[in-house]
Write a structure and sequence with these properties.
By secondary structure, the protein is an all-alpha fold. The chain contains 14 helices and no strands. It has one domain: Tetracycline Repressor, domain 2 (Orthogonal Bundle). The chain is globular.
Length: about 290
């Protein structure tokens, strides 16, 4: 009975924090980490980078569920989530998120001084994303900026210093996440407008929003290509991966249109999970071959 309760609680938290979406920033963090170390990373450092990454994204998703719970309860698309349904106590989730953030601070301290000093900035971004939709349609870029902490932080963890490569990787990560978040937000245009929430689709319409999303993803491809020219370990295999990502982006925008949003979840999440996986696999192969 106790074991079943523990398993159920783990499953509940896995759903709450959307654990399956971990891959979205994991790829950029790992590519940054491998590139910074030339594929030769000590086990201890790898462990603490992974701890920080998992603590950050888990704590952020948990606290954002609490912050958004009022609007989730009003939205027919999200009112079945655990907090609006009353199956999880918001106070419990806040405690869980706080523990995750403390683990992040501990992990950053274990890595190096600069990561520890900068970790409060990351915590601020992680904890405030959900509020941005209340006052700006640039919330998608703020979410992207939050995700960009992963590759920049991974580079700092390995080298202890900033450089052009992690900045470009961070920009690519930011625009990629913002692009598919715009697609995802297209399904809530009317709800957002009626409830005083902001998004690019709500501000400019779905058609223009999808055009902006395409521009973000096209720029992502350019930035990833620049990375390929800056990192000596990257060659033909990496650029084949960029080609695969371009084809996935093309398929993504074939699946959605202003008059057809039924495939939004597949286009914004499922396709981009494959994008993330392609970047991770092709970049890793090129580094180690």
């Amino acid at each position: 009975m106790v074991l079943n309760s523990i398993i159920k609680k783990i499953q509940d938290y896995g759903i709450l924090v959307m654990f399956s979406h971990t891959i979205f920033s994991l790829s950029f963090a790992f590519v940054s980490m491998l590139a910074a170390s030339n594929g030769l990373l000590e086990a201890r450092l790898f462990f603490w980078i992974l701890v920080c990454f998992m603590a950050a994204r888990t704590g952020a998703n948990a606290i954002n569920r609490v912050i958004d719970s009022k609007f989730d309860a009003l939205n027919p698309r999200t009112n079945g989530r655990q907090i609006p349904q009353g199956t999880m106590d918001p106070r419990e989730v806040v405690v869980f998120s706080s523990i995750c953030f403390v683990i992040l601070l501990i992990g950053a301290y274990q890595i190096n001084w600069i990561c520890f000093i900068l970790s409060p900035i990351a915590l601020f971004l992680l904890a405030t994303y959900s509020y941005t939709k209340r006052f700006t349609y640039l919330c998608h870029l703020y979410l992207g900026l939050t995700s960009a902490c992963a590759p920049v932080g991974a580079w700092l963890a390995v080298t202890g210093r900033i450089s052009l490569i992690p900045i470009i990787l961070g920009l690519a990560n930011m625009l990629w996440v913002a692009g598919f978040d715009i697609i995802y937000g297209a399904q809530d245009v009317e709800f957002d407008r009626n409830n005083g929430l902001n998004s690019i689709p709500a501000k400019f319409g779905v058609k223009r929003g999808l055009e902006i999303s395409r521009a973000f993803h096209f720029t992502t491809l350019i930035l990833l290509s620049i990375i390929g020219s800056l990192i000596n370990d990257f060659g033909i295999i990496y650029f084949i991966g960029i080609g695969v990502i371009a084809m996935l982006f093309f398929q993504e925008y074939r699946m959605v249109s202003p008059n057809n949003l039924k495939n939004v979840n597949i286009a914004s999440y499922s396709i981009n999970q494959l994008v993330s996986l392609a970047l991770l696999v092709f970049a890793s192969i090129d580094i180690y071959l």
